[in-house]
Amino acid sequence: MACDITAGRNDSNCLDSLGGIKAIYIGNYEKGMFADATISEVGGVAGQEITAFTTGGYDVFKYELRGTNNIDEANTKDINAGTSIFEASGTITLKKQDATTQAQMVLLSKGRPQIIAEGYDGSFRIFGIKNGVDVTVNTASGADMNEFNGYTLTLASKEDNLAYFVDSSLIGAGNAAFDVQANS
């Protein structure tokens, strides 16, 4: 049966796990991206890591992050309907408001991009590869000089799979499958 598990997992005694998001890479929605992806097979099971693209050349824009930023996924099942989906939700904070960033935030709120999250553990995962990510943008000025001034992005997506891992060699400037554009 296609949904039978094929492996277990040992828990490590090492305390070397890292959480948190170091950066996000945002790209405009590309409808055929999933069909273009090569997803590795692990132990005879449909894989969970994108290792290549047939064409690639997807432009992404890097947003470096500091502080508390997260994207979590929850599995929603309906036995009566026979469905199981994964809902991603997250909060990203971008410090300091300026006209250039604000112009991009307005565009972001009107689109449904695909977003790659780079974890502090060195992993890359793509959210919204099939359906895109809904982004809500809020601003805060702070009530006092030492309070947060910037943008808070709320992310939401629904997919039929957890966010796929992306091989790090696919992300870079120039000829990479995900071509990181220069920041202005």
Number of helices: 2
Overall pLDDT: 89
SSE class: mainly beta
> Can you give the helix content as a percent range?
under 10%
- What amount of the residues lies in strands? 35-45%
Low-confidence stretches: none
List the helices and strands in order. Answer: EHEEEEEHEEEEEEE
Oligomer: single chain
Largest sheet, order of strands side by side?
Answer: 2-3-11-8-7-1-4-13-12
Q: In the residues, how many domains can be counted? A: 1
Characterize the biggest β-sheet. Answer: 9 strands, mixed
How far is it from the N-terminal to the C-terminal residue, by CA? 51 Å
Output the radius of gyration: 18 Å
Task: Count the E strands.
Answer: 13
Shape: globular
Description:
The protein is mainly β. The protein has one domain (21-171). The chain contains two helices and 13 strands; from the N terminus they run E-H-E-E-E-E-E-H-E-E-E-E-E-E-E. It has helices spanning 33-36, 99-110, and strands spanning 21-27, 37-39, 49-53, 58-64, 70-78, 83-95, 114-119, 124-127, 134-140, 150-159, 164-166, 171-172, 178-181. A hairpin with a 4-residue loop joins strand 7 (114-119) and strand 8 (124-127). The radius of gyration is 18 Å and the shape is globular.
